[in-house]
Amino acid sequence: MKTLAAVPDRPSHKGPAHPIVEILEDLRKPVPQRFLAQRKQGGTLLTYIPWFNVVKLLDHFACGWEGTVASITTTSDRIFLTYRLTLHAAEGSFTREATGTEALNCGSYGDPSSNAESMAFRRAAVKFGLGLHLYEKE
After folding, report:
1. How many alpha carbons fall within 13 Å on the CB side of residue 5?
2. What are the two backbone dihedrals, phi and then psi, of residue 92, each rounded to the nearest 5 degrees?
3. What is the DSSP string of the chain?
4. Taking a C-beta distance cutoff of 8 angstroms, is the pair 56, 7 a contact?
5. CB atoms near residue 10 (< 10 Å)
6. How far apart are CA 119 and CA 124, in angstroms?
7. Which CA distances in Å does 69 have to 14, 18, 55, 104?
């Protein structure tokens, strides 16, 4: 299985947008270990891509991408956030949305809205194929 080439600090896609099929092909490649992190959740060790590395990878393979928080809803104990991620390609713009949630009194690192946004952002990127291999069961 091919892995991503070295990702420089600057975008590689300059000039006219690439065809969406090329962008998706690049995003679907396994992410190198240096972009991954691990955390324990309920006794399970999870491997994930931190949000800042998702930014680096999107900047490299889908230069000019755009993202925005589409909606925020709260209940008495949780925040629910929808993130909209748009990639621009030669054929036009393509958008995916995903949700993230966090307990308002979670006691975890960061604030609940940032955590929910990070989750939703990463999930939206997965819908374009970035890090999808991390969900495969062996």
Report:
1. 8
2. 140, -160
3. ---PPP--SS-S--SSPPPHHHHHHHHTSPPPGGG-EEEEETTEEEEE--HHHHHHHHHHHSTT-EEEEEEEEE-SSEEEEEEEEEEEETTEEEEEEEEEEEETT--SSS-HHHHHHHHHHHHHHHTTTTTGGGG---
4. yes
5. 9
6. 9
7. 26, 25, 15, 18
97 sits in the region (left: phi over 0; alpha: psi -120 to 50; else beta) called beta
- pLDDT tens profile 37-81: 999 988 999 999 999 999 999 999 999 999 999 999 999 999 999
Tokens coding 28: 């679907």
- Tell me the pLDDT tens digit for each residue of 87-120: 999 999 999 999 999 999 866 677 899 999 999 9
Q: What is the pTM of this model?
A: 0.85
- Length in residues, the chain: 138
| d(C-alpha 135, C-alpha 54), whole Å | 16
Write the CB contacts of 12 (distance below 8 Å, at least 6 apart in sequence): 60, 61, 63
